[in-house]
Amino acid sequence: MRKIKHGKAASGCGDSCCLKLEGLNVRIQGEEILEDVSFHLHCGEIAALIGPNGAGKSTLFRSILGQLPYGGSITFTQMGGPAIRLAGGTVMGETRPLIGYVPQSPSFDRGDPVSVLDFFTAATAKWPVWLPVPKKYRDRCRRSLERVHGEDLLDKPMGGLSGGQLQRVLLALALEPVPHILVLDEPLSGVDMEGEHQLLEMLDEIRTNYDLSILLSTHDFATLGSFADKVILLNKRVLKVGTPDEVIASPEFYQTFHLRVGKGGER
Q1: Residue 206 falls inside a structural domain
Q2: What is the DSSP letter of 222?
Q3: Residue 134 gets which letter from DSSP?
């Protein structure tokens, strides 16, 4: 898998676009959920967020999406441009970056007649699902699905999709329009091995084609080395940041999960 290193990302952020969290703190009902969380994610990088249940991964995503108040700062800087605050107003710059979000797979009734076209059009154009979809919206949906090689899903019922097919539809929706940052919450959950391989290949293609930052959470430690440029180990605070091999081999990883994960998988 091709790794994109934008500018001089290894030595700093001066000449590259960057999502930067500095000293992030989140407190909910008096409880400290996140404490002094700091890391950088450059355009063209895929970062995997790992941690035990209750580590604050969803809270971190909600903070980036602007859904929770926080202390510290979250900024996005385009190459050669000003820093832009993602939530709570503008620090510098004029336009918030676009953030695409893929939630954990929602469930659909297998008997539900709503098609992928209906679902996509209702989400992007606020078009009622019980009315015929105009050609311009159908064409828009097909173009979006083509980004994830899912144009054959256009007329399929949402309830009949496999886990991998559903992730394609949600990913196409998150890419309409193409964002600066793509956030995925457990995208590999409920996806079979073949679907997982295809999804990871698509993410690599997307970050190559559009040079965007991708941050995803996962519990699949054995595949980290096949797709992630960077792994962030979180348990309320950042315990370790590095390459997949560096994080998996670290004392922090073992102390958190009590696992030793080698190239052959978990043991």
Answers
A1: yes
A2: G
A3: P
Q: Is 13 part of any domain? A: no
- In the predicted model, residues of the chain with pLDDT beneath 70 are 1-16, 80, 87-95, 262-267
> Which tokens is 136 given?
């311009």
**What's the pLDDT score for residue 263?**
52
Q: 96: Cβ–Cβ under 8 A, 6 or more apart, which residues?
A: 84, 85, 86, 90
Contact indicator for 238, 37 with CB cutoff of 8 Å: yes
| Judgement on whether residues 224 and 259 belong to the same structural domain of the protein | yes
pLDDT of residue 90: 44
Question: Residues 56, 155: one domain?
Answer: no
CB atoms inside a 10 Å sphere around CB 31: 8
pLDDT score recorded for residue 40: 92
Q: Hey, what are 140's tokens?
A: 């828009």
Query: Which residue's structure tokens are 């001066």?
Result: 14
Cα–Cα distances (Å) from 18 to 41, 66, 81, in that order, read 6, 17, 10
Considering the domain architecture, whether residues 115 and 85 belong to the same structural domain is answered as no
Number of domains in the chain: 2
Q: Say if 125 falls within a structural domain.
A: yes
Residue 166 near residue 105 (C-beta atoms within 8 A): yes
Looking at the structure, do residues 98 and 209 belong to the same domain, yes or no? yes
Sheet of strand 83-85: strand arrangement: 31-42, 18-28, 71-77, 83-85
The shares of helix, strand and coil residues in the chain, as percent rounded to the nearest 5, are 30, 25, 40
Rounded Cα–Cα distance for residues 86 and 106 (Å): 26
The boundaries of the domain holding residue 125 are: 109-160
9 lies in some domain: no
Based on its alpha-carbon atoms, the radius of gyration of the chain, rounded to whole angstroms, reads 19
Please tell me whether residues 195 and 101 are part of one structural domain: yes
Q: What's the CA gap between 226 and 59, in Å, rounded?
A: 26
